[in-house]
């Protein structure tokens, strides 16, 4: 489980990450990463798993797998970053090892040069 202080809850944070973040696509997922300048908060991570991925049971399974994988990778995210992981329909059909490989590759590419957002987020 992802620690509560790292969970993205506000729709404004999701929108900021998706609209202004660096987008990196892999066969099973897409990540959007933005670094908000002037924030020393812990990184926030959110997940988007649409109905295209499968039934509610399948979507929740994919979301749990992604949360578990992200918990182990929080250290690679800079403080003050917003990350949204969007699962693609193929995420429900691959092994956890393949999902982890795609997530690692996407995070490596996104964190190499994250987009910076100069405006602080509102509370």
UniProtKB/TrEMBL annotation:
<dbReference type="InterPro" id="IPR014721">
    <property type="entry name" value="Ribsml_uS5_D2-typ_fold_subgr"/>
</dbReference>
<comment type="function">
    <text>RNaseP catalyzes the removal of the 5'-leader sequence from pre-tRNA to produce the mature 5'-terminus. It can also cleave other RNA substrates such as 4.5S RNA. The protein component plays an auxiliary but essential role in vivo by binding to the 5'-leader sequence and broadening the substrate specificity of the ribozyme.</text>
</comment>
<keyword id="KW-0378">Hydrolase</keyword>
<keyword id="KW-0540">Nuclease</keyword>
<comment type="subunit">
    <text>Consists of a catalytic RNA component (M1 or rnpB) and a protein subunit.</text>
</comment>
<keyword id="KW-0255">Endonuclease</keyword>
<dbReference type="GO" id="GO:0042781">
    <property type="term" value="F:3'-tRNA processing endoribonuclease activity"/>
</dbReference>
<dbReference type="GO" id="GO:0030677">
    <property type="term" value="C:ribonuclease P complex"/>
</dbReference>
<keyword id="KW-0819">tRNA processing</keyword>
<dbReference type="GO" id="GO:0000049">
    <property type="term" value="F:tRNA binding"/>
</dbReference>
<dbReference type="InterPro" id="IPR020539">
    <property type="entry name" value="RNase_P_CS"/>
</dbReference>
<dbReference type="GO" id="GO:0001682">
    <property type="term" value="P:tRNA 5'-leader removal"/>
</dbReference>
<dbReference type="Pfam" id="PF00825">
    <property type="entry name" value="Ribonuclease_P"/>
</dbReference>
<protein>
    <recommendedName>
        <fullName>Ribonuclease P protein component</fullName>
        <ecNumber>3.1.26.5</ecNumber>
    </recommendedName>
</protein>
<comment type="similarity">
    <text>Belongs to the RnpA family.</text>
</comment>
<dbReference type="InterPro" id="IPR000100">
    <property type="entry name" value="RNase_P"/>
</dbReference>
<dbReference type="GO" id="GO:0004526">
    <property type="term" value="F:ribonuclease P activity"/>
</dbReference>
<dbReference type="InterPro" id="IPR020568">
    <property type="entry name" value="Ribosomal_Su5_D2-typ_SF"/>
</dbReference>
<keyword id="KW-0694">RNA-binding</keyword>
């Amino acid at each position: 489980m992802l620690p509560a202080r790292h969970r993205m809850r506000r729709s404004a944070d999701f929108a900021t990450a998706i609209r202004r973040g660096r987008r990196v696509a892999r066969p099973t997922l897409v990540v959007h990463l933005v670094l908000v300048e002037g924030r020393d908060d812990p990184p926030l991570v959110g997940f988007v798993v649409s109905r295209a991925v499968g039934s509610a049971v399948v979507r929740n399974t994919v979301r749990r797998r992604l949360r578990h994988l992200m918990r182990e990778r929080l250290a690679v995210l800079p403080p003050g970053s917003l990350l949204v992981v969007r699962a693609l329909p193929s995420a429900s059909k691959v092994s956890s090892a393949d999902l982890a490989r795609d997530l690692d590759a996407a995070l490596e590419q996104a964190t190499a040069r994250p987009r910076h957002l100069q405006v602080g987020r509102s509370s």
